[in-house]
Amino acid sequence: MGASAELRRVGRVWGVIWSYGRYELDDDPGRVDADAVWEFLSTEAYWGRSRTRADLDAQLANAWRVVGVYEAASGRLVGFARAISDGVAYGYLSDVFVTADARGTGLGKELVATMIDRGPGASFRWSLHTSDAHGLYRQFGFADPDDRYLERPART
């Protein structure tokens, strides 16, 4: 499957459309189908079920960057990733998913690559949390934190 990229200006950063087979990966926040993201996160994602729709809407509105994966023919959203960042040196990768009917095609790898390696955050230090996708993220250099890393869990 050949890949091609098209750059366009989106706000303060360069936008990327990356073609991958019959799919497009696009970081235009206006193209994201928030209803489709909500449907997946609220029903299928172990990490998204505790959020409200208002929480998700605020996260989308305040995201540093989002990347959607779309069927080129229909425009249907089949994958998504969100990042928060200081815009200079650090990014946090979140809410990465590919729908069941689009899995097994390499889209997960393309989605992570587009978010962290293709675009304005390519030189950043990245972090994330996962319970089940360590193998995917290790392919991009993610590793267990060293003894300098501390984290305060959310207060309930």
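(the above was protein one; protein two follows)
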Amino acid sequence: MIDSRSLAGSDLAGRMANGGVLPVDLPPDSADRMPIPADLHDPSPPRSLRAALRSHGPRWFLVIGLQLIRARVQLRGIRRGKWVRVRGRVRVHNEGRIVLHDGVRFRAETADCELATWAGGLIEIGAGTTINYGTSIAAAGTIRIGRDCLVGTYVNIMDSTFHNLGDRGWALDPEPVTIGDRVWLGNRCMIMKGVTIGDGAVVAGCSLVTRDVPPNTMVVGVPARVVKQL
């Protein structure tokens, strides 16, 4: 988890601003069981099983084949582009529309991802975006996520509060959420209804975003505020 207090002004913040990738510490034997390919956050990962075989060998060829099969089974009824992959489990409640463009990846091994739309709702996720485990995206209206975004673990994105303040009764009252291209949403951040996040922005872990985020900025805190121009 990325703590917003340690993030601001730290070396980690600098690495995030410069597009760095956080280190992944694996148990000693895990690399033998499940190799992590160099294309994990590559903007141009292999687009065919032949390319996967050529790049990573037969074991990763089989792993990617299983990810493609999981996507076909778990995301059936959803409009999908090419090369959409699932590691783990994605749970879907779809009364509206969900659109996943080419190369969208779900890394949901540790905890399930959730995609939920209500009648008239739309979730659209741009090409090359990676969604990490525990993330929940719920749309009563419209949620659009751009291309080549990184969505951290346990991120919550919703375009409605789903209840009113008076009697706490069920009330959708959605306001659209738009997330631009190449946005990084840190672990456990929350994106509230009516928010627009500009291209290239970074939202630090555990931040609560209640207002628009300008392009190419880093925001931190509860509520999130701009701390750095990228």
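Reviewer note on protein two: Residues 1-41 have pLDDT under 50 and may be disordered.
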